[in-house]
Amino acid sequence: MLYIVIGFLWVSLLIYLLMGGADFGAGILELFARETNKSQVRKTSYQAIGPIWEANHMWVIIAIVILFVGFPDVYTTVSTYLHIPLVVMLMGIIARGTAFAFRNYDAVKDRMQNIYNRIYVYSSFITPLFLGIIAGSAVSRKIDTQGTNFLDVYVYDWYNWFSVAVGFFTVCLCGFLAAIYLIGEVKEIDTKAYYIRKAKIMNTALTVWIIIIFWSAHQDNIPLTTWLFGNWISLATISCSVPAFVLLWVAVYKDKVPLMRSLAGAMIMMLLIAVTYSHYPNIVLFKDGGHLSLIQQEGPDKTITSLGIALLVGSLLILPSLFYLIYSFGKRRVE
């Protein structure tokens, strides 16, 4: 049952990165759009994510609940030593959701719309930034449980080049996903070309931040190269991602919407496999060489069993409803 719980944790993170990432990416694209294009991006993104935007955060809630109930030591460590970026990320989620609701459903359209728009786009940027920073900090070996001052214990464990680079990489990844997704949401040739250009820009930015991530990992003695190329699973997924990337852009230019979206999702899945398999089951790595493991730091057996049963039963209820929700609104847009 433990492996079922771990599987749900991993899948929850993957789906949140795919669906929530594209959701955040829509706001990121709007943030960097010219004034003449902002209304178009706003309209398209609302049509695409409006019906399901609240459902996206269900996955991060599931992940947090799994850690809280099934792996309390991991939850306590992350929420203590990384409480600053965690609080900023959660505030970003709240601010973004509130602004999205008011700017689209407010009965009175006045100057407050400008404030809602700013809150929405900036929180869309900040939230994935700090989500990536948390992920990078967990494996950067910067968490210092023996620190003697506030900065060493609560700041420098996440405020470093590697963690921040992973954060900006996550931002660009969300923008790239949103651009790829929104290409299929419009029919006008000029608008499609606009989102293709945005996808290219985000693609270039991803490349830049990948270089910075490897550079910072080398500077901080983080064995990132070994993690990604030192085992056949990670090496195989990275090798498969290269032809997938080429096919993705072929699908973009041939306007094969289902194919481009599937390939984008597959690339994210392969990326997540590559970066998590190499140090599995260790999920948090400490500065002193210690770690927290999903196998060694799990909760009591009865708790894990109950949690696994709850996740299995809940998935039978939630997943069909979610897929039907997406299908229903997707079909309505086509009609």
UniProtKB/TrEMBL annotation:
Its main location: membrane. Signal peptide: none annotated. Keywords: Cell membrane, Membrane, Transmembrane, Transmembrane helix. The chain crosses the membrane at residues 6-32, 53-72, 78-99, 119-139, 159-183, 195-217, 229-251, 263-283, 303-327. It is a multi-pass membrane protein. It is found in: Cell membrane. PANTHER family: CYTOCHROME BD2 SUBUNIT II. Belongs to the cytochrome ubiquinol oxidase subunit 2 family. This is Cytochrome d ubiquinol oxidase subunit II.
